[in-house]
Amino acid sequence: xxxxxxxxxxxxxxxxxxxxxxxxxxxxxxxxxxxxxxxxxxxxxxxxxxxxxxxxxxxxxxxxxxxxxxxxxxxxxxxxxxxxxxxxxxxxxxxxxxxxxxxxxxxxxxxxxxxxxxxxxxxxxxxxxxxxxxxxxxxxxxxxxxxxxxxxxxxxxxxxxxxxxxxxxxxxxxxxxxxxxxxxxxxxxxxxxxxxxxxxxxxxxxxxxxxxxxxxxxxxxxxxxxxxxxxxxxxxxxxxxxxx
Length: 244
Fold this sequence. Notes:
The chain is an all-alpha fold. The chain has one domain (2-243). Helix content is 80%, strand content 0%. The chain has 15 helices and no strands. Helix 1 packs across helix 8 (91-111), helix 8 (91-111) crosses helix 15 (216-243) and helix 14 crosses helix 15. The longest helix has 28 residues, at 216-243. The protein is globular and about 55 Å long.
């Protein structure tokens, strides 16, 4: 019961101002531009959403931190942080509730892109199985970004600082598997270390899903990453509470 109340409170707070509607419009416009224009959808003459998912990690890199930056920074800035922590609710429930509310909002934004899927099916005969796994990958990536953003939002009272920290943290996990990053370590570090750095990349694990390949290790990776950052989030909040 407490969890559902927190989720409802946090989710409705997004729509307390026009910011949520502006965010959704911007997200949908950018998604359309990336898919149909930058992704050269019509020029490729292929009925698929490859261009839709190709830009997803980079679009989410800025939009998901924008959703998550307010989760704790706003509470601390407005002075409701201490009040929230005095509620007769376990701290873990509060952390999870605020995170799930942000994730629900992100899921709503993603769901509003379904007309693009409908358009592709109207224009041709795409492999809808690949599209479904692509959406799954997008959801898991959004969830990962938000978990990172939620934890880093608890570090500061300033939402702009929280946004910058979140983008930086997500960016490191995104690019860790790129050749230009791995080349920095490949000259002197053991192969096992280089492989470990590559496996930290959100991009590598998302790439399999957007291609329609569901591998258990990818699902475990996202689940572990989300769980780790929610645990860090709880630790940060606990330390702030003890510090007074």
